[in-house]
Amino acid sequence: MANVETVIQGQFKISADADTILSTVLGSCVSVCLFDDVRGLGGMNHYLLPDVREGATNATDMKYGALSMELLINAMLRQGALRRDMRAKLFGGARITRAFDDIGGRNADFARSYMQREDIQVVAESLGGTQPRRVHFWPVGGRARLLLVDSKVVETPPKPVHPKADITLF
């Protein structure tokens, strides 16, 4: 029986349990699924912004890509992973709305450049576009499953029905 653990915005989780699946839903955010398949260990993060912007109040917040990546990599190293054997799969970075800056594109660019700078091989990616994604990641072995979510489907509760009154209020 699989143990599904949700990784929400500003979090990361690692596991060496073959029955664990790490799961998240992404819009403009990015998740890096990092694994060392030699040692059977992996992890996933979920960051909201690529870097600290001017005027930010908390540069040590996990919502920033740089800190999120450092914490994920260091946690894996402490559990026995070797940097030279780490591989990455990158997901997210969609442009969900045109009303704002392309945060998703900046998040995707950050993930790619970070992996290049740290010399971590990217073996798969699904970045950009306009659709949200649901990602399931098996940290032992590095398998990932991606579902593109139809961003046009929005479920709302039915509107309440109000019976017409026989009187008129002024």
TrEMBL record:
<dbReference type="InterPro" id="IPR038592">
    <property type="entry name" value="CheD-like_sf"/>
</dbReference>
<dbReference type="InterPro" id="IPR005659">
    <property type="entry name" value="Chemorcpt_Glu_NH3ase_CheD"/>
</dbReference>
<dbReference type="Pfam" id="PF03975">
    <property type="entry name" value="CheD"/>
</dbReference>
<comment type="function">
    <text>Probably deamidates glutamine residues to glutamate on methyl-accepting chemotaxis receptors (MCPs), playing an important role in chemotaxis.</text>
</comment>
<dbReference type="InterPro" id="IPR011324">
    <property type="entry name" value="Cytotoxic_necrot_fac-like_cat"/>
</dbReference>
<keyword id="KW-0378">Hydrolase</keyword>
<comment type="similarity">
    <text>Belongs to the CheD family.</text>
</comment>
<keyword id="KW-0145">Chemotaxis</keyword>
<dbReference type="GO" id="GO:0006935">
    <property type="term" value="P:chemotaxis"/>
</dbReference>
<dbReference type="GO" id="GO:0050568">
    <property type="term" value="F:protein-glutamine glutaminase activity"/>
</dbReference>
<protein>
    <recommendedName>
        <fullName>Probable chemoreceptor glutamine deamidase CheD</fullName>
        <ecNumber>3.5.1.44</ecNumber>
    </recommendedName>
</protein>
